[in-house]
Amino acid sequence: MQSSAALEYDYSVAKLYMWTAVIFGIVGMTIGVLIASQLAFPELNYLFGEYGTFSRLRPLHTNVVIYGFTVSGIFASFYYAAPRVLKVSLGESKLLKGLGYLQFGLYLIAATFLVISLAMGITASKEYAQMEWPLDVLIVVIWVLWGIIMFGLIGMRREKALYISMWYYIATFLGVAMLYLFNNMEVPTVFFSGGLGHWYHSVSMYAGTNDALVQWWWGHNAVAFVFTVPIIAIIYYFLPKESGQAVYSYKLSLLSFWGLMFVYLWAGGHHLLWSTVPDWMQTMGSVFSVVLILPSWGSAINMLLTMKGEWNQLTENPLIKFMVLASTFYMLSTLEGPIQAVKSVNAIAHFTDWIPGHVHDGVLGWVAFMIFASMMHAAPRVFKREIYSKSLLEAQFWIQTTGVVLYFTSMWIAGITQGMMWRAVDEYGNLMYSFIDTVSVLHPYYTIRAIGGLLYLIGVFMFAYNFFMTATAGRKLEQEPQFRSPMA
């Protein structure tokens, strides 16, 4: 790579997304701890009337964490890292910079109305796609603006080769664009209701099995192209930069990229096992899910081997701790998911708490850890101030790691317990346990999950404080922090 010292990068848009990531992280994960506590202690459902029940807050939690915290973190990383690998500043084009501000403004409007609408119970009732059609239209505009900015920067670049992180950002843009459009095909009811009424309401263009197939084609690939592909883009930039180590194998990164692109798209059918979906589609979902282990582990192993010979940095640098453990959680999660997609395992696991256990060891251990690490790596360069407290980062790492471990181990035990109790029969073939029997048995594990979530939330507040203090009170830097090796 060429030296980037001669360029003065414009981080104005990146800063905006950094702050929204902090705010939405606090909001989304606070709601998450509340609803986890409600499952352990049901009386908490009545604290805020209808607006505070689990059924109202759960979609709010998932959407704020996905489209608020995670997407803000992705955009922040893009506006920081993409100009640096392309050797071009956003500020060099008034048009692109203006579009960046416009994109952020529209994003903030969409995120605000998402929170308001879901809190009011206005929902399209599709997992990860609860927004009604006016917000869907706005999301499309925001996404198109991002694409214009991305390809505009690529067109202006001074670096001839596209670094692997850019491949993953481009795939994120194209993948989400295609899947979001298809899944959110809907007809506003205002066109046939005879009046304005609930003008914002709509009905899906699909029905029955077709609706389920399209929904989970999107639903699972929301995990692929929001929780996986852009996070790999982040680690492929930030881990080499923070460690001073070149990526272990660039060829492996490309091989894993194309493997993910071809395989991930067809794994969504595993959400519909043992349903009315044609059996061959269910089998295809299972097979592609198992094959998905190969490109996923290819990426994760490549990340870990990047640290070959430099493992001592784990004891010196808390950001390296976050990134290495994130890669480890990525390996764990991408093995666990395919295991759950095997039909015989899925017969026990589906609808149990093992599923949210799997989701959260991926989201909390992989996605959130990488966003925290990338933002704290970028902060000294964006704000020109030293990280306020590395010891606070260290404490955050251990507290949140403890929280994640408590969360997923309690949910693994709870989920397998549920699955076995639901299937248990006596010598006459009658079910041995009622539903409430399983609820009673699981109470201790629900309590442990809530405690694990609380520990993780404490870490989020520690991160927010550290980030704020870094931006406002960290020791001023005369020049950008230097990397450990000449490769930067």
Automatic annotation (TrEMBL):
Pathway: Energy metabolism; oxidative phosphorylation. It catalyses: 4 Fe(II)-[cytochrome c] + O2 + 8 H(+)(in) = 4 Fe(III)-[cytochrome c] + 2 H2O + 4 H(+)(out). One of its GO terms (biological process) is oxidative phosphorylation. Cu cation binds at H220, H270, H271. One of its GO terms (cellular component) is plasma membrane. Its main location: membrane. It is an enzyme of class 7 (translocase). It is found in: Cell membrane. Its EC number is 7.1.1.9. Its cofactor is Cu(2+); heme; heme b. The chain crosses the membrane at residues 16-40, 60-81, 101-123, 135-154, 161-182, 216-239, 246-267, 287-307, 319-335, 363-383, 404-425, 445-468. Residues 13-488 form the Cytochrome oxidase subunit I profile domain. PROSITE patterns: COX1 (PS50855), COX1_CUB (PS00077). It is a multi-pass membrane protein. Heme b 2; high-spin binds at H358. Heme b 1; low-spin binds at H61, H360. Binds 1 copper ion per subunit, denoted as copper B. One of its GO terms (molecular function) is oxidoreductase activity. Keywords: Cell membrane, Copper, Electron transport, Heme, Iron, Membrane, Metal-binding, Oxidoreductase, Respiratory chain, Translocase, Transmembrane, Transmembrane helix, Transport. The keyword Translocase applies. Belongs to the heme-copper respiratory oxidase family. NCBIfam families: ccoN (TIGR00780). This is cytochrome-c oxidase. It comes from Nitratifractor salsuginis (strain DSM 16511 / JCM 12458 / E9I37-1).
